[in-house]
């Protein structure tokens, strides 16, 4: 009998009785709680941006600098600089070999020049205060460090009337000018322009954006220069304006960004 009752209990069905109470207070409390919970859920979704779908972007930025400058360099004379000269992509006029620092996500423009006349690979005295010596034993053949201008040959040679320095294998004569010309020889680089093209693509959404508007034609780009109010969508920027927006003075910055030449 006991076993039969247990099996019979498995076939039981339970239901709950629903009681509807007409009460303004309880009804108001119910919908207030439901509203608070709904607002909390919506707030958390907005706060954590759970309603958004994310995707990694692929982008590319290209720059193109334009401008022409005319300089009168001591010991050389008049030189006209174009893109390949001040951008450092090839040798320039009068056998000036260009050496420009390189860095990712950047471009460089020559603004000043230090010239050492008739420089070539040779042996010559080191410039004081480096390499001061009194005898050959003070110079170590093959020695060089981050302060020296070349590799020591092991000889102590005359630098001037009062001093001797270790002879080095280097670009001779060694660059002796310490301070760059002021004002900068290429101060007109302030009026150079740079075209910046930026392309951004979201692969998951197959969506592409550019900083050059679709309705812009080549003729529009040739004559425009960016201005915050009159031409805010032009991708061509004047270098002087870029420096000004960075709260700097171009004439001062151009002097300190050194540009060494060998001739």
Automatic annotation (TrEMBL):
Its main location: membrane. It is found in: Endomembrane system. Pfam families: P2X_receptor. Gene3D superfamilies: atp-gated p2x4 ion channel, atp-gated p2x4 ion channel domain. One of its GO terms (cellular component) is plasma membrane. One of its GO terms (molecular function) is extracellularly ATP-gated monoatomic cation channel activity. InterPro entries: P2X_extracellular_dom_sf, P2X_receptor. Keywords: Ion channel, Ion transport, Ligand-gated ion channel, Membrane, Transmembrane, Transmembrane helix, Transport. One of its GO terms (biological process) is calcium ion transmembrane transport. The chain crosses the membrane at residues 28-47. Belongs to the P2X receptor family. This is Purinergic receptor. It comes from Electrophorus electricus. The lineage of its organism: Eukaryota, Metazoa, Chordata, Craniata, Vertebrata.
């Amino acid at each position: 009998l006991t076993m039969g009752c247990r099996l019979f209990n498995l076939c039981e069905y339970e239901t709950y009785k629903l009681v509807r109470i007409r009460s303004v207070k309880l009804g108001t409390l119910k919908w207030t709680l439901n509203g608070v919970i709904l607002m909390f859920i919506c707030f958390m979704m907005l706060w954590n941006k759970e309603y958004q779908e994310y995707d990694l972007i692929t982008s590319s930025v290209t720059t193109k600098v334009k401008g022409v400058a005319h300089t009168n360099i001591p010991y050389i004379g008049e030189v006209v600089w174009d893109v390949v000269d001040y951008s450092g992509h090839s040798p320039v006029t009068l056998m000036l070999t260009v050496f420009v620092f390189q860095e990712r996500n950047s471009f460089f423009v020559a603004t000043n020049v230090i010239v050492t006349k008739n420089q070539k690979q040779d042996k010559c005295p080191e410039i004081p205060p480096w390499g001061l010596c009194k005898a050959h034993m003070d110079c170590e053949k093959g020695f060089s460090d981050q302060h020296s201008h070349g590799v020591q040959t092991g000889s102590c040679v005359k630098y001037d009337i009062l001093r001797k320095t270790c002879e080095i294998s280097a670009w001779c004569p060694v660059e002796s000018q310490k301070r760059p010309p002021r004002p900068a020889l290429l101060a007109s680089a302030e009026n150079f322009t740079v075209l910046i093209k930026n392309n951004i693509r979201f692969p998951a959404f197959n969506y592409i954006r550019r900083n050059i508007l679709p309705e812009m034609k080549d003729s529009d780009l040739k004559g425009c220069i960016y201005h915050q109010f009159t031409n805010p969508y032009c991708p061509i920027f004047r270098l002087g304006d870029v420096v000004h927006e960075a709260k700097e003075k171009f004439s001062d910055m151009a002097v300190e960004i050194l540009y060494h030449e060998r001739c």
